[in-house]
Amino acid sequence: MTDIRQLPLNDDRHLPQLGIGVWQIDDATTPGVVSTAVELGVRLIDGAFIYGNEASMGEGIRQALVSRDALFVTSKVWNADQGYDSARAAIDGSLGRIGLDYLDLALIHWPCPARDQYVETWRALIDARAAGKVRSIGVSNFNPDHLDRLIDETGVTPAVNQIEINPRFQNAGVRAANDARGIVSQAWTPLGNGKSFDAPAIREAAARSGKSPAQVILRWHVQLGHSVIPRSTKRDHLASNLDVMDFELTGAEMAAVAALEAGARCGPDPESFEAE
Fold first, then answer.
1. In a domain, 177, yes or no
2. Which residue segment(s) compose the domain that 117 sits in?
3. What is the number of other CB atoms lying within 10 angstroms of the CB of residue 67?
4. How far apart are CA 156 and CA 251, in angstroms?
5. Helix axis angle, 118-130 to 144-154, nearest 10°
6. Does residue 188 contact residue 11 with C-beta atoms inside 8 Å?
7. What residues contact 250, with CB distance under 8 A and at least 6 apart?
8. Does residue 269 belong to any structural domain of this protein?
């Protein structure tokens, strides 16, 4: 089984560097994906209310042959549930659907700045942690000004900021802001929907190392120190995504991947995304 590095969080807990996300996996498929991933060595499972499969994610967790305390389970408070009371109820709802007594990590899914509710939502997460319903708390898609407002108004710094990071959208400014505040960057859509698989920088590193383009990109994330949550429904791909600890990219290869930055998001802009 792959030995996955544990990243230290600012709340004295640890986060597995590699895991899986269950976004866009249907209910029928999710239990098998989760249980198979755990069998292969995954301990970090990233879900969210809006994915619509929290219950089936929980079924996969129950099928997995490891103890609950060996797993690191994440869910997220959706935009429509922002605000103190709604967010507390959303956390209870996620726990009920997944079938857990606590979450290892709860995130605010998007800042939704036009709503101006993310500080009160953050206070709800702080109190849920104090009540033992959540072990660590963080955010997703927050920009530096959003982070600073949370910290300034509550005195509590997020442990994690889950953001889009991939070779064509490296989000360097937010990553640097996270680092400066002691926040772990966690990459969603880490493979960038495969749009850089054919780039010479990726192909050449893959040929040199005997790895796939996806493994090269995941290794790039690992060497940058991110937590990474790629999604797959196939056992061989799940295994391949874990098989990135036995090689290193050279400095020149890391620089060549960095040069692929194109400012091309796969997902929405956090400054304007307000979907319910």
1. yes
2. 16-193+225-232
3. 7
4. 36
5. 60
6. no
7. none
8. no
One-letter amino acid of 171: N
Binned at pLDDT 50, 70 and 90, residue 2 comes out as low
Q: What is the mean pLDDT of the chain?
A: 97
pTM: 0.98
The response to whether 221 counts as a known ligand-binding position is no
- For residue 7, the cross-strand partners are 15
How do strand 14-16 and strand 20-21 relate by DSSP bridges? unpaired
3-state DSSP assignment of residue 26: coil
Q: Could you tell me the pLDDT band of residue 148, with boundaries at 50, 70 and 90?
A: very high
- What are the φ and ψ backbone dihedral angles of 163, each rounded to 5 degrees? -135, 160
Residue 118 Rama label (left phi>0; alpha psi -120 to 50; beta): alpha
Q: Is 51 one of the catalytic residues?
A: yes
Number of domains the chain contains:
1
The residue assigned the tokens 């926040």 is 183
* Burial status of residue 191 (CB atoms within 10 A of its CB: 0-12, 13-18, 19 or more): buried
Distant-in-sequence, close-in-space partners of 167: CB < 8 Å, separation ≥ 6: 192, 196, 199, 201, 202, 217, 220, 257, 260, 261
Q: Which pLDDT does position 3 carry in this prediction?
A: 83
Residue 214 falls inside a structural domain: no
Indicate which CATH number applies to the domain containing 116. Answer: 3.20.20.100
Q: Cα(158)–Cα(250) distance, rounded to whole angstroms?
A: 32
Q: Which of 51, 84, 102, 118 is catalytic?
A: 51
In a domain, 220, yes or no: no
